[in-house]
Amino acid sequence: MTIYKNLIAGEWVGSDVTKNINPSDTNEVVGLYADGTTEDTKNAIAAAKAAFPAWSRSGIWERHVILKKAGDEIMARKDELGALLAREEGKTLPEAIGETIRASQIFEFFAGEALRLAGEVIPSVRPNIGVEITRDPLGVIGIITPWNFPIAIPAWKIAPALCYGNTVVFKPAELVPACSWAIVDILHRAGLPKGVLNLVMGKGSVVGQAMLDSPDVTGITFTGSTGTGRRVAAASIEHNRKFQLEMGGKNPMVVLDDADLTVAVEAAANSGFFSTGQRCTASSRLIVTEGIHDKFVAALTEKLQTLVVDNAMKPGTHIGPVVDERQLKTDTDYIEIGRKEGAKLAFGGELINRETPGFYLQPTLFTEATNQMRISREEIFGPVVSVIRVKDYEEALSVANDTPFGLSAGIATTSLKHATHFKRNSEAGMVMVNLPTAGVDFHVPFGGRKGSSYGPREQGKYAAEFYTSVKTAYTLA
Questions:
Q1: What's the average model confidence in pLDDT over 293-306?
Q2: Active-site residue list
């Protein structure tokens, strides 16, 4: 079996390997991928530092061409890469292909941004002096990505980092190295100079820690758990480096009495259960007013009965497996916690056997939950959703905002008044009206508030806020 190695200073290196296991069929090894060391990481950082001066001054057309080539190849290989994603992460094949297309679109967007780099020339308040405001690249960017979006999230971090003239040391999640390796290989063959992009696969405690410990890493962008995000922040402050964090969510979806029931159910099912609920934007709290509560629960339960949980590659599958055994245990532990807390298990909650051995779990719906229960306050990151009954819109808004997180929030209503008020008063970074809370465009900012995010937004033109530093220059005429 082919061994997929790390890319350091333009060379494929590495000897120790780990197995990449298919969660839909645990008998299948997707591939053998390098298990990087502290020394590998130090070498990658050194290579990125050495490559920075030349790349930071490279022409915008060179950057445009490389990013465009990468986007074009990803799109041309969307079925192949989508299948790879589905096999290593467990996302259904249609979802995986959709994510691959999004990665291509991200590279296309930042290929365009490379040609739109701009600054300002303004007059000084003093006579005969001109002022130029420009953006400089930061330097070496450390990129640490999670397992739930193994091609889109690396794309939306790597593409702007390169677009704005930074060099990169990239550590993907241990569970999903295949898509990351493929992206790096595509960019490497697209013509990136040696050392501009370095891939070090391996354990977070080894590779990630070496990145945090290095004073030569001038910026770190991280997506993952809240606990790890705090460690990234603490280590970055010690080195006075810029850092960007995308962490957890306990996203609410409010359903009001005047909602279109079909729209509300579709949005809730998509938000809570698709991608096996393994999205930071997933809506795991359904806050439903009492007039529509019973009808909504009945309709959502009926919808869940139609959803097929099976092998991610199998046609007709709506929900794939949980990503691995450890996450499956977390999910089932929280299901037991919900029962003990007094919530009613209205649907699902059972492990499932399929033709191939995998981590299959029924979509799980709790009713009679309160916002004080652990299942309503802590991120589970699985297909486990709670329904909280409330009196009216005012109580719904209060409950929706009563969370330490603030990534995404949704409302199902036909009232323009309530929709407008919710958009203005929701304490979330992203708000959806009559749409799933999960699912955002590639060209607009992504991020949250409170415990969900820290630092500048990701994606779109707002990405420049993190990946560049503003410079102000004065010239005497």
A1: 98
A2: 246, 280
